[in-house]
């Protein structure tokens, strides 16, 4: 097992003890991460037909490398992974997954369509799960996203240097897949902020006082809140577009955060942001 994965699983164990409330979701994530590693090895090269001769132009024009709204892709591999992911959730007796599996078998649910929808309607309302996490966690959305992660992660690793060394990508959405960032991180390097794409694992530097969603830089309408005893996490909010993003600052601690894990372990902050009226 890869060293990094081992470290991550240790972190998850620690969080399970510290935050028993998240035990179920963290348990799912643990299995997902192990399975992800396996699927990464099976990924077919370039199922997203990235045309390398267009990359520079695309990036310069603010376009991500993969366009999900228009492209037709052969998603057999990700679909196979999706079914395996559903089984993980189902085994853990999450009721809704039984229904989804059935619908997939009857042909009532089309995987490609789910993928396209997930890119067209970010944060699909009404698809939220009503579990102990206060209904904030969208299980199906998470599984659809995850099913594409191994294939997109490979792209994100392949083109990372090219993107980082080129003119700076200054958009608030991911240069690889176009998804909005899931969470952000303050890093050692001069306290710079990096946005993290949960869809492909790409991270890119972004202004610290700037809303990734609408580009607002006015300090009067940007704010953040923290909660007691968890000062290393904060929620950055924008009062122009009403969106928020969680930010992790683990510079004080030794470890390099795994942002997939941090995202789940801070769902209570999503609940608070939601209660405050932010999306
Ligand atoms: Zn991405
Ligand atoms: Zn905004």
Query: Which molecules other than protein and nucleic acid are bound?
Result: zinc ion
* CATH architecture annotation: Alpha-Beta Complex
The total domain count is 1
**Largest sheet data:** 6 strands, mixed
The coarse silhouette is globular
What is the typical, i.e. mean, pLDDT? 89
CATH topology: FdhE-like fold
Question: Structural class per helix/strand content?
Answer: alpha+beta
**Proportion in β-strands:** 5-15%
Helix content: 40-55%
N-to-C order of helices and strands: HHHHHHHEEEEEEHH
Distance between the termini: 37 Å
- Per CATH, the superfamily is FdhE-like domain
Evaluate the radius of gyration. Answer: 18 Å
Low-confidence stretches: 123-133
CATH C-level class:
Alpha Beta
| Strand adjacency order, main sheet | 3-2-1-6-5-4
Please, how many helices?
Answer: 9
């Amino acid at each position: 097992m890869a060293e990094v994965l081992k470290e991550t699983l240790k972190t998850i164990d620690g969080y399970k003890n510290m935050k028993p409330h998240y035990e179920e979701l963290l348990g799912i994530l643990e299995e997902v991460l192990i399975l992800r590693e396996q699927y990464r090895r099976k990924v077919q090269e370039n199922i997203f037909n990235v045309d390398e001769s267009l990359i520079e132009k695309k990036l310069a024009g603010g376009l991500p490398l993969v366009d999900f709204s228009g492209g037709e892709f052969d998603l057999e591999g990700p679909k196979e992974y999706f079914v395996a992911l559903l089984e993980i959730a189902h085994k853990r007796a999450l009721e809704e997954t039984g229904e989804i599996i059935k619908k997939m078998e009857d042909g009532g649910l089309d995987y490609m369509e789910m993928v396209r929808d997930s890119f067209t309607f970010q944060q699909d309302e009404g698809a939220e799960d009503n579990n102990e996490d206060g209904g904030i966690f969208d299980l199906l959305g998470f599984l659809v996203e995850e099913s594409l992660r191994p294939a997109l992660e490979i792209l994100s690793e392949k083109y990372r240097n090219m993107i980082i060394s080129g003119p700076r990508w200054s958009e608030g959405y991911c240069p690889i897949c176009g998804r909005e960032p899931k969470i952000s991180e303050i890093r050692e390097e001069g306290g710079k902020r990096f946005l993290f794409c949960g869809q492909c694992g790409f991270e890119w530097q972004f202004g610290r006082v700037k809303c990734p969603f609408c580009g607002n830089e006015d300090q009067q309408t940007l704010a953040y809140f923290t909660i007691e005893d968890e000062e290393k996490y904060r929620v950055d909010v924008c009062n122009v577009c009403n969106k928020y993003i969680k930010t992790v600052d683990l510079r004080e601690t030794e470890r390099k955060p795994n942002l997939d894990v941090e995202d789940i372990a801070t769902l209570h902050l999503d609940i608070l942001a939601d209660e405050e009226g932010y999306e």
